[in-house]
Structures are given as C-alpha cells and as structure tokens.
Design a protein that fits this description.
about 300 residues, two-stranded parallel ribbon, about 55% helix, alpha/beta
C-alpha cells in the first residue's frame, strides 16, 4: 500500500468515525436520565415548579404534559380545544396530584398570544416557571401560490411570533432566578426547503437558528434552550383534512421512520441542557445529514413523492 492509498484510507476512516459519532453520541445523551428534571427544586414559596406547554391537547404537547406531571411539575396547558384541555388537566390532577390549569387560546390570534404571554410572564416573575415548551404548530399541504395567504400568516404567528413572544416574556424572571428551560419544537423539516410545505419548513428552520443563537447569548446564566427536531411522529398532525385530501397515508413510510410522541419527549427532556439541537432517533439524524451528500434537487423530488 503506497503513501497516497494509506492517506486516503486514513481520511476515510476519520470521516466514517466522525459520521458514526454524530449518529450515535446523541443516542447516549437522549437515553441518559434528565439532569434538568433531576435538578428541579421547589420554588421560593415551597410549591412545585411549573411548566407552560402550548399545543397541549394532543400529540407531542400532551406527551410533554403527561411526562412532566409524572415528575411533579405543575402545568399550564395551552390549546384551542377547551374540552380536551379540561379533560387532560383533570386526569393529570387525579393521577399525579399536581396543579394543572387550562388556558384556552388560539395562538394564530395576536390578542391570544399577548394574553398567554402575560400569564407566562407573571409565572416567571413569581419564580415558579421552570419550563416553557413552545410546541403549538400545524402544517398545510400545497404549493404556496395555491394556499390562502391567511393560513400561512397564521402559521407564522403560531410557530414564530408565539415562540418569540412567550420566550421574551419568561426570560427576565428566569434570568433573575438563574434557572429555566425553553424547548422550541422545530422539525427535521427545518433542515430542507420543502416544496409543498414552503412556509412550514421555513418557520421550523427559524426555530432552530433562533434556539442556537439564544442559547449562545444565555451561556452561563443557568438557562437551557433547545430546538427539538422530531421527524415523523404518531400524533394527530397528519390526520387533518388537508393531509387526508393530499392522499398522505402513514403506510407510505416504513415503520422505522416513525416514533411515538412519548419517545420524542423523553429524548428531549433527557437532552435538555446537553444538546441545543435535539434530533430524536438515529434515522432522523441520518435524514438531516443527507443534505451534506445528496443534491437538494433530488431530495426535493423525493419529498414530493412522499407528500
């Protein structure tokens, strides 16, 4: 073996090792017990810490609420559907003996965003708010030019404006306390421009960049920020009329591409304070790394076939 061949072999081994590390190292972090939850302390008045969860009536938001209640957190549950919120709050109070408050709001509406931000600010100023989970979101299907503009503006409000407003509302209190966690639920869709989901993928990219930048600003303050990037998740997200009309079916994708909401939440909470960008599941990390090797035009064609 000549020198050039040895050199190329060494480079190949190094690249392969780095690739394997990026795939496997997060798995260790996401399976380790949550240091953030373990360090949760009662507030100044001796009451349990509180988590505010948006989009809490189903899917990943509901899974966050159930997991945090199991750890003794009080909860403020935010969503549009009062009956489901009240049922969840009642169940959590009975099962885990925690406080659980329903806060009905449509986060596409600026007045409701402001109202929820006020509640979040008051909780944070009181020293009780330990976690903010910005989970609310929805998707649309279709080319941007064919979709109602209002639906895309609503998406900006729910994904971006709400996240900015609630995060800004809770930060002063968290900074004074020297502790807090903020989870912004993004998506693996944020790693690619997606035809047919242009606004959705763009808003999710924003959440990733915003979270990384914010964590850099907050280093050393005791506040942990995370962009959670799940892939295909068993929830009601794909059960909307828009997705049904598009012909999307879960069976189109192999079983290993799917995760439960509970798996996503466990990975997120375990990684909070350890990973700023949390991508649950090896298969999802492969998807996000493909952008380095596969031309985007090809990836766009693949997405159109799935959609």
């Amino acid at each position: 073996m000549n020198l050039a061949t040895r050199f190329l072999t060494l480079i190949g081994a190094a690249v392969s090792g780095a690739f394997a590390w990026r795939l496997l190292q997060p798995e260790v972090v996401q399976r380790s017990p949550s240091r953030f939850l373990a360090a949760a302390l009662p507030t100044r008045d001796g009451r349990p810490p509180v988590a505010l969860v948006t989009g809490a009536s189903a899917g990943i938001g509901e899974a966050f609420a159930r997991r945090l209640a199991r750890s003794g957190y009080g909860l403020v549950l935010v969503a549009r559907r009062r009956e489901r919120l009240d049922a969840l709050a009642d169940a959590l109070q009975q099962q885990h003996a925690v406080e659980a408050q329903s806060l009905v709001a449509d986060l596409a509406e600026p007045d409701d965003i402001e109202r929820v931000a006020g509640v979040a600010s008051d909780l944070s100023e009181s020293g009780r708010l330990d976690l903010l989970i910005n989970n609310a979101g929805f998707g649309t299907v279709g080319n941007y030019a064919d979709l109602p503009l209002q639906s895309q503006l609503d998406m900006l409000n729910v994904h971006v404006t709400t996240t900015m407003s609630l995060t800004r509302a809770v930060l002063p209190g968290m900074l004074r306390r020297g502790r807090g966690g903020i989870v912004n639920v993004a998506s693996t869709a944020g790693w690619y421009p997606l035809p047919g989901n242009a606004t959705y993928s763009a808003t999710k990219r924003y959440l990733i960049n915003f979270s990384e930048s914010l964590q850099s600003e907050l280093d050393g303050t005791g506040i942990c920020v995370q962009a959670l990037c799940p892939g295909f998740t068993y929830s009601e997200f794909h059960d909307t009329a828009a997705y049904r009309a598009s012909g999307f079916r879960r069976e189109q994708l192999p079983w290993f591409m799917w995760q439960t909401a509970e798996e996503v939440v466990e990975a997120s909470l375990n990684a909070l304070g350890r990973e700023v960008v949390c991508i649950p599941g090896i298969h999802n990390r492969v998807v996000t790394m493909m952008q380095m090797f596969v031309p985007r035009a090809i990836l766009g064609q693949v997405w159109r076939r799935i959609k």
